[in-house]
Design goal:
By secondary structure, the protein is an alpha/beta fold. It has helices spanning about 1-15, 30-40, 55-65, 75-85, 135-145, 150, 160-170, 180-185, 220-230, 235-240, and strands spanning about 20-25, 45-55, 70, 95-100, 100-105, 125-130, 155-160, 175-180, 195-200, 210-215.
Length: about 250
Amino acid sequence: MKKFFAALLFIANSLIAGKINIAVAANVSYAIDELKAEFAKTHPKTKVQVTLGSSGKLTAQIKHGAPFELFMSADMKYPEMLYKEKIAVTKPVVYAEGALAYLSTKKQDFSNGINLLTENRIRRIAIANPKTAPYGKAAVEAMKNANVYDKVKEKLIYAESISQTVAYTITAADIGFVAKSSIYSPKMRKYKEGGNWADVDPKLYTPIKQGVVILKKGANNKEVKAFYNFVLSDRAKSIFKKYGYIIQ
């Protein structure tokens, strides 16, 4: 009898399952498919609709009424803003800490660290827009702290998001500041650590603590709450680690 009622409960949950609409910072684009697949193991009937973009632009869309129910930001600034304005209904929580890396399609000598950018053969440096993309802001901070920003600022080419920065780095620049997570995607495995990419010294920029919140539109949606809990779970953390994120 217990098995019968358990089966009825499973069927009932399946029937009411639907779609959740989430806004996700572009740097998570490389891990999001694996995150969705893992979530689907326990919520097979829930469709997770993802919109990717820079955290600043997604925040602007949320403020203007975009139908997002959950927001995974690239930093804590934007979810804290939304929580303060009562657009988010949960206090921002860190789900992962991002890392910044240099990437080049050409083999580079990274032994001099960020000073590599000042060399004459480095003519174009891709970077995400620091006004809307936290990874772009971190890149500018790193250059300024290393006293190379004024020497290289004329070389900078700006992308709208960190994922677009990767595209610019591969097609139009000599080197770029990218989210380390991008390097762990299957398409990027041909680029080798120490030759094509290296970590930016984390002492040069403020830790990129990425925050998640449930938004007002998802306040009463049990499936949104389930995905929120999943993002903070050990199952999700193991995936974030796999993509180069730092988990505290």
